[in-house]
Amino acid sequence: MSEATDDVRRALTIVFRGTDGLARPDVERAFSFDMEWVGPHEAEQVVDALLAAGWLEAQGQHLCLAVEIGAVDVPFGWFPRPARLLNPAQASGSEEGVEHERTAVSTASERSTPSPGAGRPPQPAIADDPRARLTRRVASFISRQSGLDAEELQRRAERKINAFQLITPWMAYALVAREQGLVMDDIVKALDVN
């Protein structure tokens, strides 16, 4: 599978986790406000594009997955490229069609969006949240204060994200800190952007 297809499959896995269908406003809210992958003004375009590409289908008042996406591994901290949601690969058809679509999307996105920098993934809409930039610092602080090594802390934060589904990584780390009995005032100060 192409990276473009994997991005769509992962995004849909997260949005539709634990449910057979969602109302359209809920899907748009998940893409924009909850996960902050795209801006609110783009969320409607994303849903329209996913419907047109055959990933979603309308069933009454709900949107449902139109294709079986199977077991999908979503790495910690992963987020999709907004261009891959706004111009998704076709859900059905031959692999050649998907590859052609991916190439067309890549070419179009290269023309329309500046490169975010070599070796760095593009920043999602969450980058507008000043606390998101402090995630590493907060994780280091919690690791030092709690005595948990970084890998164990990350594993626990991933469990929080899986359990609560639509929370940001910094919030997951804060929940782990609370679980470890750390003084939350210190965590709040570490997350303070002023």
The SSE string, one letter per element, is HEHHEEHHHHHH
Strand order of the largest sheet: 1-3-2
CA-based gyration radius: 18 Å
Count helical runs.
Answer: 9
Give the biggest beta sheet: 3 strands, antiparallel
How big a fraction of the residues is strand?
A: 5-15%
Oligomer: single chain
Counting helices, strands and paired strands, the structural category is mainly alpha
Poorly predicted ranges: 93-127
Count of β-strands:
3
| Terminal residue distance | 44 Å
The domain tally reads 2
Into which percent range does the helicity of residues fall?
Answer: 40-55%
Q: Please state the overall shape, judged from the principal axes of the Cα atoms.
A: elongated
Quick check: average pLDDT? 78
